[in-house]
Amino acid sequence: MTVPRDRQRDFEKLMEGTTYALIGEVIAEPELIIRDGLGRDLVKEPFSGLKAAWKAPLSNL
């Protein structure tokens, strides 16, 4: 679910009493970045490469 940053508190209040977690955010750069708990980049890949890797096995179908 995508929640605009300015509505985050409203969403958290609505979800009170349930289990949920903030796992990421949408950024302007066309890349996937996964960071560890200290903010260090574990994965930083452009979407173009990820899309090509995802589509490669499907090209033979």
Secondary structure: helix percent:
25-40%
Give the end-to-end Cα distance, rounded to a whole number of Å.
Answer: 32 Å
| Helical run tally | 2
**Morphology:** elongated
* Poorly predicted residue ranges: none
Strand content: 15-25%
N-to-C order of helices and strands: HEEH
Q: Which radius of gyration do the C-alpha atoms yield?
A: 16 Å
What is the count of β-strands?
2
Largest sheet: 2 strands, antiparallel
Query: What structural category characterises the helix and strand content?
Result: alpha+beta
Averaging pLDDT over every residue, what do you get? Answer: 93
Strands ordered across the widest β-sheet: 1-2
Walk me through what this model shows.
Strand 1 and strand 2 form a beta hairpin. The chain is built from two helices and two strands. It has helices at about 10-15, 45-55; strands at about 30-35, 40-45. With about 60 residues, it is of the alpha+beta class. The longest helix is centred in the last third of the chain and has 9 residues, at about 45-55.
Features:
single chain; 61 residues
In short:
The protein is an alpha+beta fold. Helices cover 26% and strands 18% of the residues. The two termini are 32 Å apart.
How does the SSE layout of this entry go?
Blueprint: H1 8-14, E1 31-35, E2 41-46, H2 47-55
Antiparallel strand pairs: 1-2
